[in-house]
Amino acid sequence: MTVRAENGALADSAGSAADWLPINTIRTLVIDAVQQAQSGHPGAAMALAPVGHTLWNDVLRYDVSDPGWLNRDRFVLSAGHASMLVYSLLHLAQVRRSAHDSALAVPLADIKRFRQLGSVCAGHPEHGLTPGIECTTGPLSTGAGASVGMAMAGKWLASHFNRDGFPVFDYRVYAVLGDGCMMEGLGSEAASLAGHLRLSNLCWIYDSNAVTIEGPTDLAFTEDVAARFTAYGWHVGFVADVNDLAALRAAYAAAAVAGRPSLIVVRSIIGIGAPTKQGTAAAHSEPLGVAEAQAAKRSYGWPQDAQFLVPDEAYAAFAAGVAARGSARRAGWDTMLASYRSTYPALAAQLDLMSAGELPAGWDADLPEFSPADGEVAGRAASQAVLNAVAARVPWLLTGASDLAPSTRTRLTFDAAGDFRPVSYGGQNLHFGARESAAAAAANGLALAGIRPVQAGFLVFSDFQRGPLRLSALMGLPVVHIYSHDSISMGEDGPTHQPVEHLASLRAMPGLIDLRPADANEVTAAWRTLLPITSGPVALVLSKQELPVIDRSRYASAAGLARGGYILAERGLDAIIIASGSEVALAIEAHEDLLADGIGTRVVSLPSWALFARQDQAYRDLVLPPAVTARVAVEQAATLGWERWAGNAGIIIGMRSFGASAPARDLRRHFGFTAEAIAAAVRTVIAGRQKDTGNEEIASIDAAAG
Length: 706
Ligand SMILES: Cc1ncc(C[n+]2csc(CCOP(=O)(O)OP(=O)(O)O)c2C)c(N)n1
Ligand SMILES: [Mg+2]
Known about the structure:
- By secondary structure, the protein is α/β, with parallel strands linked by helices.
- It has 27 helices and 22 strands.
- The radius of gyration is 28 Å and the shape is elongated.
- Magnesium ion (MG) binds at residues 178-179, 209, 211-212.
C-alpha cells in the first residue's frame, strides 16, 4: 500500500520522499511497539530513524540472508534502551535467522510483542536471543567498549588472513551512543584505547540530544565531547540536524577515509514529532500515550490511526539498499574466498577452525607437566608456561593485561608472538593499558568476532570489570579472564589489593566458570579443560605466591580438575577437608599430621564450584558422601557460600574481614590459614559430631585459636 510520506514538521530537512517513507515507518513502529507494551524507550529510537535508514541503506555492507557472514559490517546499538530502532531495522531489512534458516530474524509479530516473554524483541538487545544483534547492550557504554574489541579483531584478522588481492577481512564497525554512553567511564577508556590504536575501521555515532533521564544534560554534563575525542586522536564530524540526510551521508563518507576512529556528533530532538514530549526527558522512557502518538504520526504525514503499518515501499527501500548492496558484496567475497582457499589452503583451514570455534589438532600436545622436584611454582608462573604453549599453536588466541602483564605473567614470549600495535596489528600480545573496564568490554568484542581473547588483571580489580564480565556470561562468550594475586597471600600491598569477597561474587554469576587451581599441574589441567569450553567465560584465579607441586605419585592426578572437584588424598573418612587453590597444600599437610595421630581424612580439591555443580549427583556424593558430615572447608576468601560444601555441621576457615598489610606468611598465621588450624578444626568437627554442637562461628574462632 501507499501512504503519504512527507517529512511534515521537518519541512526544511534534506532527503527525498523515498527516504522519509522508511524513516517514518521506523518511527511509527517504535511508537506503536512501546505504546502496545506500555513500556520501553521511544524517544531516541524515533529521533535516530534517519541514522538507521541512511547507515543501513547507503553504507552498511551486510548480507541480510546471513547475519553471521564473517566480513559483515557491524552495527552495535550501545544505547541499548533504544532497542526498537535495531529491531525495526532488522525487520525492514528482512534479515534472516541464519544462512541455514530463512525465517525472519525479527518478525512483525514479535515487534507487536515487544518486551513480552518469548519475543525476540527483548527490552534491551540480546545477542544470541535475536539473530542480527551483534552484542548485548543496555549497560551504557559497554556496547561501545565491545565495538572497540570488534574493531581490534578486524585489524588483527586482516593482518593475519589477508593477502594481496584477498581482502578476507575489511569490515567496519559502527556503534550508536547516547549522552549516557558518553558520560560513562568505560566509554572514555575504550575511546582512549581506540584512539591510541588508530582503529580506522571504527565509527561511533553520538546521538547528542541534550536529554537524559533526569532532564536536560546541563544538569550534569557540559563538557566539550568533540574536543575530548579530538584529544584522543579521533576524527570528529558534526551533523547539526539528524534529519539532514545529506549531512549524515557526508559524515559517513568522511569517517570512512579518516584513517583513524571517527566520532560523528549528531544533534537530534528526542521524541521528535510528539508535540508536548519532544525534546524533553518525558520522551526517554514513557509510552507516548494515544493522543501524543496520533499527533506524532500526523506530523510525519502518517495515518494517525494506523498501527504497526509497514508500507511495501519501506521494505522495497531496504531491499534496494542494504539487501542489494550486501548480496552483491557477499557474492564477490564468496568468489574471492573460493580462490583464497586454493591459493592459501593452510590459512583457509585456520579460518574454518576459528570460525567454527574449534582448536587446531594437537593444540594441547606439549603442555608442561610439573614435578615436585621442580621446586615451588606460583600459579601465575605455571599459567604463563601453559599459555605460551597453547598460544603458539592457536594463532587467534590473543592475550592482554591491563598494564599488568609482568605481574599476571600473561605475556607471550615465543618468537612469532609479537605485539598488537597501531598500524602493525598482527601480534598476539595486546596492551589494554590500565583500563580494566574497557579491557573486559573489548574482550567481549574480540570474542564476538571469533578471536579467543585472554584478558588479565589482579583478582581484586575484577570489580572494575563487573559490567562487561557480566555481559560475557550473559552472552555466553568464550573469554578467559585471568585473575592473579588471588588472596590475602599477595601480601604487603595490603587490604586495598587483597581480594576477599571476589571469589564469592564471581561464583554467584550464572554461566561464569570459576577455576582456582591448587598447584602447577592443576594449572595445566585448568587450561586443558577451559580452552575447549566455548559456551561461556572462565575466571582463572591464580596465586601470586609460589606453591608446592603436589606429589601426584602419592596423591590423585590433577586430571580430576576437569570435574570441578575430586578426591585428592584418602586415608580414611573420619572427616573431609575441602580446599581450593593455595589452601590445598595446607590441607594435605593437615591430613598427614592427623594421620600420624590416627585420624583418617579425605582431602578434596575443589578448584571449580561451577564445574563440580555440573557433575551428576552420584559423582558429587562419591566425592562428598552425605553421610560424612564432619567437614572442614578452607579457602583464603570470604566464607559466603561455603556452607554448600561444608554442610551445617562443618567448619569453614575463611576470611571474615578485610586483610592487612604484612608479609604473606604472617597474614596466613594471623588469619588462621595453617595446617595446625586445619587439623584443630578437623578434631573439633569430629568431636562436634559426637556432641552435636556444630556451629560455624564458634568453631571457626576455635579453629583460629588452635
Ligand atoms: C551503566 C548504566 N547506568 C544507568 C543506566 C540507566 N539508564 C538508561 S538510559 C540512561 C541515560 C539516558 O540518556 P541518553 O543516553 O542520553 O539516552 P536518551 O535519553 O537520549 O534516550 C540511563 C542513566 C544504564 N542503562 N546503564
Ligand atoms: Mg540523550
